[in-house]
Design brief:
- The chain has ten helices and 29 strands.
- It is of the alpha+beta class and 490 residues long.
- The strands form five sheets. Strands 23, 24, 25, 26, 27, 28 and 29 form a seven-stranded antiparallel sheet that branches.
- The relative contact order is 0.09.
Length: 490
């Protein structure tokens, strides 16, 4: 039977063999010199990736931590539209604790390892697993929640160490590799590019936190926290920290702490057991196009001071709420996190030169930085904020003078002054972000500024505003001052 089938198939193939004999063998078209060069370049990139992985992977470790159950959930859980820390959460071991997994970067041969605060900062127990599967119990050297940096230490010698690069010169579009233990898969390497720089993703509740992330599309997932983001020279340029995701897994947006900032924090922790960070004493806000118009700028530039804390370098340098910082040490700034990062790189006692615009004047001042204040020590410097009902038709607001009764009703401090918003109608005011309970304490437009102590002050200020232009209203809301910018109706 086998012989018959063979003969039958051979007969079936004879016509095709005859066709090939007649037509000849068809060869693939020859590559052009440009195509050969392009392939060679890809082969070079492939060689580079392999070399980088071989060089860096031995210095990236897996960090297993045991945490109390009440500590294990990220504050972002339940808000899948917001960035989240990404670290692996295996099944609970018991009712009181939870084992989690992250990554770390070996910095010294004798066992100092750089990782994230959210990985190791509040752990009950820390275990480090090396790429060769050796395990060591680790101790926490120190952690900084405001940058999400932590340093741990294992007792060993002759470890492979990572080479730290410089993140200041990182360019959007350059190739990078992410190395870590996503989903518990140790020594995983993925490739991508730097997608953006200077990202503030509002990951931390602390308004003094420093977020200046490098964004990348190199695939990273739970367990990558504390791992390395490296360039094509095999240098660590970032510490992987968070992802923006709607699913809980990688969807193309990962974020890493710039290594310049992480290294400064790490060096302080190793040398002093704490971070010795310069502190200026301001809360900052990015300047929008509307605010640029309201503050008399020809374009959105600089960073707006939203608050000055009392008895701080900023207060002593006579900085005021509503000032716009144009330059720090001669470098133009456009984002709050630029300033935060530049200040964080300095130590207490260092000075910083600030170029400030106030109204229509530009001037330079020097501030000597203080120590970084704990959050519970920070208080707002006094600001001008006394009691008939007044309806401001053009904005759709109903405001009242502050009395003892409405101060208690809205939970206001006894000494607060201004015009209390008690109703916000549909229209300009609501669209601009006014809320019931806001206390308006100043109004400004370009070089015009009016302090508001009563509804009469507020009414007079509105009469002086130029119609069709933006104006900025300082409001006190839930214990904090902020700006509401409104385009005044014509």
């Amino acid at each position: 039977m086998f012989t018959q089938i063979q003969i039958h198939m051979t007969r079936m193939c004879l016509p095709f063999a005859l066709v090939f004999f007649i037509l000849g063998v068809q060869e693939a078209p020859a590559l052009t010199p440009e195509e050969k060069q392009a392939i060679a370049q890809l082969q070079n990139l492939n060689t580079a990736y392999k070399a980088i992985a071989r060089q860096v992977t031995p210095s990236v470790v897996t960090v297993k931590v045991k945490k109390a159950v009440e500590q294990r959930r990220s504050r972002r859980r339940g808000r899948p539209d917001l960035p989240d820390f990404f670290w692996r959460r295996p099944a609970p071991e018991d009712n009181d604790s939870q084992e989690n997994m992250g990554s770390g970067i070996v910095i010294t041969p004798d066992g100092y390892i750089l990782t994230n605060h959210h990985v190791a900062g509040d752990a009950l127990r820390i275990t480090v697993v090396l790429p060769d599967n050796q395990e060591f119990e680790a101790t926490l050297v120190g952690a900084d929640p405001r940058t999400d940096v932590a340093v741990i230490k294992i007792d060993t010698q002759n470890l492979a160490t990572a080479k730290l690069g410089i993140s200041d010169g990182v360019q959007i579009g350059e190739w990078v590799l992410a190395i870590g233990a996503p989903l518990g898969l140790e020594s995983t390497v993925t490739a991508g590019i730097v997608s953006a720089r200077g990202r503030n993703i509002h990951l931390f509740r602390d308004e003094l936190a420093i977020e200046d992330f490098i964004q990348t599309d190199a695939a990273i997932n739970q367990g990558n926290s504390g791992g390395a983001l490296v360039n094509l020279n095999g240098e660590v340029i970032g510490v992987n920290t968070a992802i923006a995701t709607s699913t809980g897994n990688f969807v193309g947006y990962g974020f890493a702490i710039p290594i310049d900032l992480a290294r400064k924090v790490m060096d302080d922790i190793i040398a002093h057991g704490e971070v010795r960070r310069g502190f200026l004493g301001v809360a900052l806000k990015q300047v929008t196009a509307a605010e640029a118009d309201a503050f008399g700028l020809d374009r959105p530039t600089g960073v707006l001071i939203g608050r000055v804390y009392s008895d701080t370098p900023a207060d002593k340098a006579n900085l005021q709420r509503g000032d716009i910082i144009l330059k720090v040490d001669g470098k133009e700034v456009k984002r709050p996190n630029q300033i935060q990062s530049q200040i964080a790189m300095k130590h207490p006692g260092d000075s910083v030169n600030l170029t400030i615009q106030r109204m229509d004047k530009i001037w330079t001042t020097r501030a000597v930085l203080d120590k970084d204040f704990p959050k519970n020590e920070v208080q707002t410097a006094s600001f001008r904020q006394t009691p008939s009902e007044n309806e401001i038709q053009q904005l759709g607001l109903t405001v009242q003078n502050i009395t003892g009764d409405n101060a208690r009703e809205y939970g206001l401090d006894n000494d607060i002054e201004g015009a209390l918003v008690v109703e916000v109608e549909r229209g300009v005011g609501r669209a601009s972000g006014f809320e019931v309970g806001d206390v308006i304490f100043d109004v400004r437009q370009s070089s015009f500024v009016q302090n508001i102590r009563s509804t009469e002050d507020f009414d007079m200020a509105l009469e002086k505003l130029e119609k069709g232009r933006n104006a900025s209203f300082s409001v006190y809301r839930q214990g904090r001052p902020r700006f509401v910018t409104v385009k005044i109706p014509k």
